[in-house]
Amino acid sequence: MKYINATYKGVISAILLIVVSLVLFYVFHLPENGKSQYVILGLFIASVIWTIVSYKTNGFSSNTFKDYFSEAFKAFVVVTLFMAIFTYFFYKMNPQILNNAIIENNSLILKEGNRTIAEIEENSNKLRSIFMPMMISITVIKFLFLGSLVSMVGAGFLIQKK
Questions:
Q1: Among 42-51, 63-72, 129-138, which stretch is predicted with the lowest mean pLDDT?
Q2: How many other C-beta atoms lie within 10 A of the C-beta of residue 147?
Q3: Is the dihedral of CA 100, 102, 106, 108 positive or negative?
Q4: 61 pLDDT above the threshold of 60
Q5: CA distance 95 to 111
Q6: 47 or 112: whose pLDDT is higher?
Q7: Phi–psi pair at 158, nearest 5 degrees
Q8: 3-state helix, strand, coil in the chain (%, to 5)
Q9: Phi-psi region of 29 (alpha: psi -120 to 50; beta: other; left: phi over 0)
Q10: Please, which residues have CB within 8 angstroms of residue 136's CB and are 6 or more apart in sequence?
């Protein structure tokens, strides 16, 4: 069997994550930031582990932490890039998510009773302006942090002598 390099594994994993995200949202009608995210994150973790383990089994490694982490890094950075782009287009294609968030936020502010209508409207405009950068930032940070953590732990386990 031909070895698939880490970049291609990242592309394959990212496409899988995007397809699963779309199926969970459009077919099963699960919220985009609900518990369904655990499925996405679980698949992401599995893809990073797949990258490290296949690297070891194909004999490319000199059994150093740096080699394993570097291989996993190549994969999870590609996945992070794809997921950031997907996040942008997903929220652009689904403006109702932002509108529902604004409505929910406005109702919470109204329940407090200490803001004027003009302040609530200004808050809605601020939320509208920061929503997309905030969602992309959260996605990037989440995938980079989790990818780094799984890569470090996986590399740590694989360099141990038996």
A1: 63-72
A2: 23
A3: positive
A4: no
A5: 25
A6: 47
A7: -75, -20
A8: 80, 0, 20
A9: left
A10: 84, 87, 88
> pLDDT tens digit string along 92-118?
999 999 999 999 999 999 998 888 889
Q: How far apart are CA 75 and CA 159, in angstroms?
A: 19
**pLDDT exceeds cutoff 80 at 49:** yes
Cα torsion at 6, 12, 14, 19 (round to 10°)?
-170
CA separation, residue 152 to residues 46, 51, 103, 108, 159 (Å): 14, 13, 41, 41, 11
The pair of structure tokens assigned to 134 is 């905030």
**pTM of the prediction?**
0.93
Structure tokens given for 148? 């780094």
